[in-house]
Amino acid sequence: MDKIIEILEDGNRDSVIPLGISNRHIHLSQNHIECLFGKDYEMTRLKELSQPGQYACKETVIIAGPRGVIDNVRVLGPARPMSQVEILSGDCFKLGIHAPVRQSGDIENTPGLTIIGKKGTVILEKGVIIAQRHIHMTPQDAERLHVSDNQIVELKINGLRGGIYNNVVVRVSEDFKLECHIDIEEANAAGLTSKSEVFIIR
Q1: If pLDDT is split at 50, 70 and 90, which confidence band does 202 have?
Q2: C-alpha–C-alpha distance, residues 199 and 168, integer Å
Q3: Phi-psi category of 35—alpha, beta or left, where left has phi over 0 and alpha has psi -120 to 50?
Q4: Which of 2-16, 102-116, 139-153, 178-192 has the lowest mean pLDDT?
Q5: What is the pLDDT of residue 8?
Q6: For residue 71, which phi and psi values (nearest 5 degrees)?
Q7: 3 state DSSP class of 61
Q8: Cβ(66)–Cβ(85) under 8 Å?
């Protein structure tokens, strides 16, 4: 904790991590895109996201569990090898499923649900998760911040409702841009916005 106080008092801007806040969304495989929207369908880009090559699509789907449904779940592109649904903790009650906290792509032994599109339906056998909070960064960022890929770190959050978030995984790739990702429930609990900044506790 003394190290964090030192960082903040010194005004060391090199230690600041930009913050990205995500809502529930879905990543689809090309096969599932065609099942839901039609053969040879191409998704429509709505806006670019902060991570290079990632974008929000105009298209949305309905997701349905044993207990209920959620409308207007945004599709993110590009297509992935396997479909994955990232929901909020509160969505589990509405849908009637128990989704684990996982890193993106780690979908073994996760629940599934039904995805409803404009042209068809997909019964997803697995792939529903609550995303583990994480930090995207380049190898150069990792060296500067003295962390490594898949390292678990803690974050200092400033503000009236600030505190410390633990179990934050570091993800390192040349394809990434420096940014911490948390979901909207976590952000609301700590009074955070996309303009907020966080710091790694060393």
Answers
A1: low
A2: 12
A3: alpha
A4: 2-16
A5: 40
A6: -90, 165
A7: strand
A8: no
Angle at alpha carbon of residue 97, lines to 95 and 102, rounded to 5°: 115
DSSP secondary-structure letter at 10? Answer: H
pLDDT in tens, 20-45: 999 999 999 999 999 999 999 999 99
The SS3 of residue 137 is strand
Q: Is the peptide bond before 78 cis (omega within 30 degrees of 0)?
A: yes
| Contact by Cβ (8 Å): 86, 25 | yes
DSSP conformation class of 173: -
- Per residue in 101-140, pLDDT (tens digit) is 999 999 999 999 999 999 999 999 999 999 999 999 999 9
pLDDT at 2: 39
Distance CA 191, CA 173 (A): 29
**Cα–Cα distance measured from residue 195 to residue 64, given in angstroms and rounded to the nearest whole number:** 33
Collapsing DSSP states into helix, strand and coil, what is residue 14?
Answer: helix
Calpha distance 138→88 (Å, rounded): 27
Pairing verdict, β 152-157 and 128-131? unpaired
CA distance 31 to 146: 40
Q: Are strands 163-172 and 152-157 parallel, antiparallel or unpaired?
A: antiparallel
Q: What is the DSSP string of 16-55?
A: EEEEEEE-SEEE--HHHHHHHH-TT--PPEEEE-SSTT-E
